[in-house]
Amino acid sequence: MRSSMWDASSEKHENLKEAVTIFLIIMAAISFWFLRTWNKHSRNPEQAPLPPGPNGVPLLGYLPFLGTNLHHQFTDLSRVYGPIYKLQLGTKLAIVVSSPSLVKEVVRDQDTIFAYRDLTVAARILSYGGSDIVFGTYGPDWRRMRKVLVSQMLSKTNLDGCYALRKEEVVKSISHIFSEKIGTPIDLGQCAFSTTINTTMRMLWGGTLQGEKKSDAGSEFRKVVEEMIELLEKPNVSDFFPALARFDIQGIGSQAKKLLSVTEKIFDSAIEAQINKAQNERVPQNHEEKGFLQFLLENNNHQDSATTLTIQQMKALLMDIVVGGTDTTAITVEWVMSELLQHPDEMRKVQEELTEIVGMDHLVEDFHLPKLHYLDAVIKETSRLHPAGSLLPPRCPSQSTTVGGYHIPKGSRVFLNVWSIHRNPSVWDNPLEFRPGRFLNTDPNNSFDYLGNKFQYLPFGSGRRICAGIPLAERMLIYLLASFLHSFEWRLPEDTEVDLSDKFGFVTKKVTPLIAIPTLRLTKLELYA
Ligand code: HEM
Questions:
Q1: What CA–CA distance (Å, rounded) separates 156 from 148?
Q2: Among 178-192, 279-293, 341-355, 490-504, the least confident range
Q3: Most exposed residue of 155, 297, 408, 490, measured as fewest CB within 10 angstroms of its CB?
Q4: Other CB atoms within 10 A of residue 447 CB
């Protein structure tokens, strides 16, 4: 009885909450509509027109028509409205750009204006209020953090130095597959993700976190990272109607805070452990044992204001490396393996190259990697067809400007549709075919790299906000793939096919996880132990 009364009153409470929410959305939308109409009338007649775009419904704009696979839908819309168009999404004006020449206008010609991000509620919380690199405001703090990451932590010397840590984790994964998974179907994306996150954790904490503590942190982090990425992908009413953000209608803000508190504990205990270690024991001076965190803490002791970070900034930076670097790498590995299983001839060519360069009685080592040209071309071709960031994290102009002759208002959310450019037949020959040969470097002056200088190929973005982790991502991708492909033969389970369909998200994933069966490839069994 008590319970049914409680249920009834809780139901009424829910109904009331829903009614208030709808009322608030309508009020916010009416105010916005009013302001927009007023703005339209007061616009300078000499100002360039806004880009074309589909009509939406009053108040909500195009929101009710948005599907889940935004990169596909945005590509279809560009066939109707052209390479730059607008969409009204609640109170937000979105601009979608999908041609190399217009992308160049954004990320090269007007790079400073577009060097800002448009933060969602979840992103703001998970980035410590935008104190990181990915979501941080373009300015001195962002510049200092990028400098520490790019030119110091990810310098060639540092990356060469911590190769031993990467190797230990990759060899551990190979041994694990050898001892437990031979001949059985495994989820290759999960396998790539575990190896990537364990390797990343190892590089962050160095050789100092041992035994149980280390593996606990790894698996705890894996769960949290997955949940964080899911949250960053969820459409949130508060982002389309910022006036409603304080009500946190879908609870996304509070979930983000909960997840942040879990990572806080992990970071705090790792920082404490490093500081204690530095006080009580010999601190490793060689790169092989030294993790990025120790590097950051030591860096701060040098009192060089050009590279000193606050503890909050350090945590935000660690978060960027864990969240921005692991899923992207693991998913790219999964896509490459999917394409190779779909194209056995290409798989054969990659494995022949591995046999020639590495040989059958060694495991892959760092020094082999620059010689694996065919595998490099396969990774590049896969990143063309399946870029991890299909629309890139949206940019946000700091002032009103003009792109392609159209007015782009300050504060709009600008999507660069890399997925569509990478598949455009007027840009690429037979773009839907998987042809790694197009990336084989025959003319060194005209080859493709990841640096975003050719605007038809942008898997790591371009301009000031280009991926800051490219040196590590490049090494991890080729090392993981070369190791998996050199140590094992891979086949699909009976009566299954590779599904290459994708779904939009913070990172563009496969709809169906890749399941494959490994068998031994090397005859010297001691190599797997
Ligand atoms: C295959 C792996 C990776 C892919 C495909 C990838 C892709 C991207 C893309 C597309 C962007 C947005 C660029 C833009 O807006 O123009 C980005 C940004 C970023 N990535 Fe990566 N990334 C990868 C690995 C990593 C790793 C390993 C790290 C860290 C060690 C990292 C750190 C970052 C950071 C900090 C940013 C923000 C840059 C800024 O806004 O200034 N990424 N990444």
A1: 13
A2: 279-293
A3: 155
A4: 12
What DSSP line would sit under 105-172, residue for residue? IIIIITTTTT--B---HHHHHHTTTT-SSSSPPTTHHHHHHHHIIIIIITSHHHHHHTHHHHHHHHHH
Identify whether the C-beta of residue 442 lies closer than 8 Å to the C-beta of residue 90: no
ipTM of the complex: 0.99
The model's pTM: 0.90
Map out the domains of the chain with their CATH numbers.
3-528 (1.10.630.10)
- Distance of alpha carbon 481 from alpha carbon 333, whole angstroms: 7
- Answer whether 388 contacts ligand 1 (Cβ < 6 A): yes
For residue 520, the surrounding DSSP H or E stretch is strand 515-520
Backbone φ and ψ of 54, nearest 5°: -70, 150
The reply, when asked if residue 467 is annotated as ligand binding, is: yes
Whether 481 has a pLDDT exceeding 90, the answer reads yes
Pocket flag, ligand 1, residue 331 (CB < 6 Å): no
Token reading at 151: 């030119």
What is the token pair recorded at 75?
């590509």
Least confident of 9-13, 134-138, 151-155, 219-223: 9-13
Q: How far is the CA of 410 from the centre of ligand 1 (A)?
A: 25
